[in-house]
Amino acid sequence: MQRVGAGTLRAADEGKRVRLAGWVHRVRDHGGLLFFDLRDRSGIVQVVLAPQDGAYALAQGLHPEWVVAVEGKVQLRGSAAVNAKIATGEIEIAEPGIEVLAESDVPPLLPSAADLPEEGVRLRNRVLDLRRDEMQRNLALRHRLLQATRRHLDGEGFYEIETPMLTRSTPEGARDFLVPSRLQPGEFYALPQSPQLFKQLLMVAGFERYFQIVRCFRDEDLRADRQPEFTQIDIEMSFVAQEDVLGMAEALTRTIAEAGGWQVELPLARLSYAEAMRRFGTDKPDLRIPWEIVDLGPLKDAFTAPFLQQALEQGGVLRGLRVPGAGAFTRRQWEDLGRQVERFGLKSVPHLARAGGELRGSLAKGFAAGDLAGLESLTGLCEGDALLVLAGREEPVSMALGHLRLVLADALDAREAGHRFLWVTDFPLMEWSDEEGRAVSRHHPFTHPHPDDVARLEQDPLGVRAQAYDLVLDGVEVAGGSIRIHERALQQRVFHLLGLGEDEAQAKFGFLLDAFRFGAPPHGGIAFGFDRLCMLLAGAPSIRDVIAFPKTAKGTDLLTGAPADVAPAQLDELRLRVLAPDALRRQES
Ligand code: ASP
User: Fold this and answer.
1) Which of 272, 351, 475, 542 would staple 361 via disulfide (CB 3.0–4.6 Å)?
2) Beta carbon of 195 within 6 Å of any ligand 1 atom
């Protein structure tokens, strides 16, 4: 008899004899009737045994996570026994024959348990953790999104082409993972931070439309939703302008989102980088939060607090954020918020609050009642609201308000339902790096300057916009890309501004620059952070929940124990020596 999926059976199957196989999910012995739930990839079904059934004694010895095969009859449950919580809740399997296929030790993590153990336990026992319904659903979703991506891009004429994993450094600017070469001792491969240079080479090679669902590696200190190895949907196209790439990426986004059960209307919203910073204080605004930063410049005389006036005299801007519901915050709450902005060089959050018909808050003294009407019409401030007010240099002021916007949206549960995609375009081409004492690329050195700004590259390099774009979903960057420079002279000018000498550029990216000598088509592309996209579509709290075998925030794999030491003979073959932890320091001193 052919095996059927436990979760596929319905009332219409009543009377059929079926063969199932899977894991014992839960056992309930009611002293008389004995029940157990059988779980496989498709779901769960209840098996029932009466004392007169031949398999009764065997079933009494079953434990969670044993693997069994069951052959029995589908019968309707009495109406009182219907379990509306599971898809098979109207039926059960009766008079079963049971064969034990494998026993299980007592599992350290029970897939049927309602409470999750801490994440370390989950990662160490990943196989058991992956058996949980939530993880089964997440990885099934990931699979569907991958297949939808492939079908979509194939349908649009893209070729899937693989690029090397053992390669040279790529230009994303993070630290490389290095792999020592045995055949060329003392030399190293780098794992790719992305296939950036290769996909550009593929354009020069005439493939016109490339994609790859590809693992990328960046050796960075990990933040909450980062992994040292992660998956990108990497795309490059020839003979295109920015609009073509955005249009292609929007259609793909809709396909992927629909595969995850979301509806997406095109075209997606857009903001320039400058506008995103001005209105939301970030280059990845979460548009579900309905508050915007306002320019309080027209009312600058109304704010008499000396520290604000002083900042204005020094040429600063005056910006505010109206927060409905914060009017009634206590002193303590404002003090807590003050601590949230310490990293922006602020000690407190100056504010006005309207509560109980009064104007309160740290800025209320000195704010003339006569100016209230002006404030109301400029900001919409009304009873129950607070207005946060900052003055100073534009960038830190915007960023601090942008940060407070997120913190307060969390505290006040202010995000609107639904999901919001947004393109952010016209990023600056370069930014100043204090660390390196030079301008660095915001995206990478092959990013094309905005055509309107090319002429002033040398005069105002930090003011030049790039043809670079990010796709943001609910405040998370899910894709980013750019139109590339394909003109050699322009590339030289940009390298020059980045302080990259000809020799250095040649040493780093010579193979790309050489290829450009033989006719490079105009091209551009984008890469989607696939893990983050999965996480958001799954509604999962972490990207680790949509990756089968992820690493911890320290970059370790608790399941395999990687990274781990290796046999001395392996190091000898590579002609490598590992220094004691403090050896470098001793050498320096
Ligand atoms: N290679 C870039 C990145 O990984 C994406 C792109 O420009 O297409 O950020």
Assistant:
1) 351
2) no
